[in-house]
Automatic annotation (TrEMBL):
This protein is part of the stalk that links CF(0) to CF(1). It either transmits conformational changes from CF(0) to CF(1) or is implicated in proton conduction. F(1)F(0) ATP synthase produces ATP from ADP in the presence of a proton or sodium gradient. F-type ATPases consist of two structural domains, F(1) containing the extramembraneous catalytic core and F(0) containing the membrane proton channel, linked together by a central stalk and a peripheral stalk. During catalysis, ATP synthesis in the catalytic domain of F(1) is coupled via a rotary mechanism of the central stalk subunits to proton translocation. HAMAP family: ATP_synth_delta_bact. It comes from Dokdonia sinensis. The gene is atpH. PANTHER family: ATP SYNTHASE DELTA CHAIN. InterPro entries: ATP_synth_OSCP/delta_N_sf (IPR026015), ATPase_OSCP/d_CS (IPR020781), ATPase_OSCP/dsu (IPR000711). This is ATP synthase subunit delta. NCBIfam families: ATP_synt_delta. One of its GO terms (molecular function) is hydrolase activity.
Amino acid sequence: MSRAAIRYAKAILDLAKDKGSVDAVLSDMNSVTATLEGSKELRDALNSPIIKATDKKAILRQVFGQSTPETLGLVDVLVDNSRADLLGGVAASFITEYNKANNIKAATVTTAVPLTAELEAKVLAKVTELTGSTKVTLTNEVDETIIGGFILRVGDTQYNASIASQLGKLKREFSNSL
């Protein structure tokens, strides 16, 4: 995250707190993140120096027209300051700042196949136990290259119990013993 994105995120979080619309803005930021991740064309348009600011603003208002006034104001400020390319970073930073403020731990578990509801509940319980936090959000990423097992990331901590990792360790042990 860039420093500018973090500053914008903190400002919009403070504004949302003042207006009592933090949860609505959080929903908007989740929507912004998902939309930008799913649309390379939109990301390219925001990064393009050729597209005029007025056109960028029109595009973003079209896409996020149902958002809160705070989110639409953020879009306007970013476009007016020639920082539209920061929108995704601001949204991600907002979510991070919201989680920090509410003591919510964000965990990501990478598996070879999607988690079942039962496994997801077990992973959530384990993360809650490990972090001591009662509030945990869990994101499941699917990466078939890990073959099996899982990789769990909570904050700066990573636990790698994937088959690919274990095979890599075995390979290193064999090559070191030769």
